[in-house]
Amino acid sequence: MKSPGAGTWGSSCPPTQGGIVVSSVNTLGATAPARAGTRQTADELPWIEDGSKVAPKDARVMSRLFLDRLRELEEGTQEYQYARNTLIEMNLSLVAFAARRFRNRGSGDMEDVIQVGTIGLIKAIDRFDLTREVEFTSFAIPYIVGEIKRFFRDTTWAVHVPRRLQELRVDLAKSKETLATELGRTPTVKELATHLELTEDEVVEGLIAANGYVAGSIDTPGGDDETDGAPKYTDTLGDADPALELFEDLHTLAPLLQRLDERERTIIEMRFGQELTQAEIGRELNLSQMHISRLLNRTLKKLRIGLLHT
Predict the structure, then answer these.
(1) Residue 183 is inside which H or E element, if any?
(2) 114-158: per-residue pLDDT in tens?
(3) 99 Cβ partners below 8 Å, 6+ apart?
(4) Considering 13, 64, 151, 261, which has the largest number of Cβ atoms within 10 A of its Cβ?
């Protein structure tokens, strides 16, 4: 249960707001009813058990009362927290209303969108000034929508790029549309740079970064020809070279071969370089096939151990 603001209260019957009983609390902590929407003294705030269940029409009236009182309370006190938390609860319907327009956008979970929108609502509550003579709802909606838009801007990029380039992408998109209407064609980099008062390098950097906003499929036709029979990006991708692993093994093996004595190197070269059989090697070296087999096995074992320890 929230901690209510302290004050002296008095009324005859507990009224309701959207089906919610609103009562007040005196300085001794005993509850006494207070009529909803009635003007309270500077020290009074009605006690609302669950602000999220207050009807939107009543919430607009009560929000002004709570905002007025919030400015007089000391931050960090129980009364301040009660007033601020109740304001948030009463205006969650604004967040839900603003979030509905984003329900089909991107892959963001609506629960995340609501949470982000609530941050915007809290900022609006903390920054609202009653002297501006503007309705709180009109003041809060831009904050809520702005926070949600920032959420999508920062989380829907396929590749993470700096915030500066994310914002530049938006400016470039608007400038492209404006210039295309004026010129009747796609604007050049130089024209975009002049329109945005940027250097051509900055525009190019922004255009390149914009490619990270959406990830394209490798099955998309590449180049200017986008017909079904056109080569796809996947057709241009290379595959692993089957000889690469062999090259790495040979590169590692080379210094090990240098450590062998002359006879061992000769047998290895004749067996694997010239692809002679053990019997043929034996005749060339005037050794028996059995002796060649033992020498070959011993040499190969020496090379394997060297490879494992390299």
Answers:
(1) helix 163-183
(2) 898 999 999 999 888 888 778 888 899 999 998 888 887 766 555
(3) 110, 113, 114, 117, 144, 148
(4) 151
- Count of CA atoms in the C-beta half-sphere (13 A) of 237: 10
Residue boundaries of the structural domains of the chain: 16-155, 163-236, 254-308
How much of the chain exceeds pLDDT 70, in percent? 71
Whole-number pLDDT of residue 15: 38
CATH number for the 163-236 domain, one of 3.40.50.300, 2.60.40.10, 1.10.10.10, 1.25.40.10? Answer: 1.10.10.10
Q: Burial letters for 202-211: b for 16+ Cβ neighbours within 10 Å, e otherwise?
A: bbebbbebbe
DSSP string, 25-70: E-TTS-EEE--TTPPPPTT---EES-GGGS-HHHHHHHHHHHHHHH
